[in-house]
Amino acid sequence: MQVRRIDSYNYGPNFTRRLRENEKAEYNAAVNEAKKYLGIETMSMIIHGSCYPATEYNTGVGSPYSKAAEELIKFEKLHGFNANQLGPNGEVTRGSISPYSGTVFARNHLFINLEDLTTEKYGKILSQKTFDNLLLENDAGDKNYTYSEFFEAFEIYDIAIKEAYKNFKKQVKYGDKKALELNKDFQEFKSRKGSEAMEESLFQVLTHTYGTMDTSVWEKEVDRDLISRLKQRDPEAIARYNQLLARSGDEINAFIFGQFIAERQIKENKKFREKENFTYINDLLVGFSPSEEWIYREAFLKDFKLGCPYGGKLGPQLWDIPVLDPKKLFNADGSLGPAGKLLKHKIESAFETGENLRIDHALGLVDPYIYQKSSVYITNGYLDKSKFYANNVSQMPQIDPDKNYTKILEKILLPVLKEHGIKPDDAVWEDLVTQTPTFNYIYYQKNKLPGITQLEWARGERSPRRNTALVGSHDSEPATIMISKDWVRNSSAWNVDYLAGYLNCDPQRAKEREEFKQKIIQNPLEQVKAKFIELFTTSKNIQISFADFFGIDKTYNLGGKELKDNWKLRLNKNYEDTYYKNLESDNPTALNIPEILKGAVQAKMDIENVQDSMESPQEAEFNRNELIREMTPLLNTLDKYANILKEKTSDEDVEEEE
Q: Which among 458, 460, 541, 469 has a CA at the least distance from the CA of 502?
């Protein structure tokens, strides 16, 4: 690997009209007052772990547990955010960097803050020289984005963790005080999670040996089912286990040590977030990885995988995700079976890296679409449907005779949420699926759960306020790209008459409504702005993608497409400068939060005035005047800061930054 040392972190100032220190308190108070009036409880940024910036040093990918993450959280809080929607935080591989193909229990070691390991806090177990030599160049361009360098990151972290573990062992041997303190915590970690980490490390070693995670093609039969046979005290499995320890002991122990460091830093960051009153929403991915299927073999349905009936190259989408065996979810007495225990463990584990959950692909926990892998025959690029065996579980009574999948929400997921103090309406539920009668009954009618309102396709006017609302997700193009597409221009959700009417519904503001309509007709960026104004009126829980907030014209992941840059988009080191610089440009694409909020507050005032018009004329007019009197100071303050963020940089701003 070619490594590039950073000689200096000082790339020179990039002056912009930032908020001045004496403006920040009033600005933040106005933003939060507007959110309160709009009934917004959670305003979260959709930003996966690798998308975080590298403000001082660059190891290839971002981390939600770094010092840079703490700086970003403070910046977000200033602008009204109180949560981040992360992606899944499991280990990813060189073969697939998608966080949705990662492990459930093993933490992504690429999120470890390596700089911490060079400090006294960790006994300087990573040398400063090694750390400096591993760093990559930190992009200091004017663009408001950069890209993760996953493949160099894998090598950087492999080198760093192995050296850190080697030095740690040496320092423990020689009785170093800090190393002994660290070792005490390490031993406690191993008593709790050592077996789990060991099993995961064995899978990693065998994957390297065979060059594939497909255990069905591993040459040695004992390796294909090693963990199950070890649990049965099989002599051949025990001999193979000892052989792997002898050959790859350092690699195995370094992996376990890396998991310990990752957990330790996650807990440290959690304390910071508690102090800042800022929440991480962890993504509870619907599936499991090949390593979990290998480790917990008895919990999974043999020869079946999770998919989706539509949208794939072959017709259905063949996700190749392991499926929990319905017959092993619950025992005859109603207690949890092996699959049920594993699922509960998965949900509880997700709370270790965040305070709330996004329930990915909720259908998969109620009525998943599954297919028999051995029935997949592809001829000339087409799926042979005469041999293909697939359906939703509710239509496969021989697979799930007791309808155990329909019990998961009530008996496993909702109780775990309750244990962690999460009300069903406060979690993020992804119900954007090909729904079935069974799903609709269990999910909506019986458990009355909320869902997603995605304004990319839907209107917000009648959306349930308990839904989580967003314009685009982590699988969407930024709204500034969407607006150029024919399907958007022809969509009722983006219709200019709808937007102008919904956001200016008071008949007494007909003139303003027409002016608003003409503005969004003439400028597509104003139409995008209108969608975000709509967003703030839609739900108590809203989400904004980091690409939309910062005005980035690149896509993080285009759902359903295998593109070379998928999952790589990342904030640049100068994200604050480029954000403010974008806002003061002639055609800003970043979100001017006070401007958006002013529009949303006015829209809600209009709605209240229309509702009040049902009263007597005198009472309606009184209510209107009272509302205007009450809200005018807030509207004026929001307008003030909306214009400040548009100001060109002045000499005063340059002097303040200097």
A: 460
What does the alpha-carbon distance between residue 168 and residue 179 come to, in Å, rounded to a whole number?
6
Distance CA 268, CA 258 (A): 15
Q: Could you write out the three-class secondary structure of 279-314?
A: EEEEEECCCCCHHHHHHCHHHEEEEEEEEEEEEECC
Pairwise CA distance, residues 99 & 148, whole Å: 13
**Residue 651 burial (CB count, 10 A):** 8
How is residue 342 written in tokens?
């594993």
Q: Give the pTM.
A: 0.94
Q: How far apart are CA 325 and CA 635, in angstroms?
A: 56
Question: How far is it, in rounded angstroms, from Cα 12 to Cα 573?
Answer: 12
Query: CA 259 to CA 264: how far, in whole Å?
Result: 9
* Residue 428 Ramachandran class (φ > 0 left, ψ -120 to 50 alpha, else beta): beta
| Secondary structure class of 330 (helix, strand, coil) | strand
Tens digits of residue pLDDT in 434-450: 899 999 999 999 999 99
Measuring CA to CA, which residue among 61, 72, 59 is closest to residue 137? 59
Q: How far apart are CA 427 and CA 418, in angstroms?
A: 11
Paired sense of beta strands 146-147 and 428-429, if any: unpaired
412 close to 347: Cβ distance less than 8 angstroms: yes
What are the residue ranges of helices labelled H in 43-149? 67-78, 128-134
Of the candidates 52, 1, 4, 39, which has an alpha carbon nearest to the alpha carbon of residue 573?
Answer: 52
Give the number of other Cβ atoms within 10 Å of residue 51's Cβ.
29
Q: Quick one: 309 exposed, middle or buried, by C-beta within 10 A (0-12, 13-18, 19+)? A: middle
Question: Residues 502-536: pLDDT tens digits?
Answer: 999 999 999 999 999 999 999 999 999 999 999 99
Q: Give dist(CA 479, CA 501) in Å, integer.
A: 21
Q: How far is CA 107 from CA 54, 157, 303, 432, in A?
A: 20, 13, 27, 27
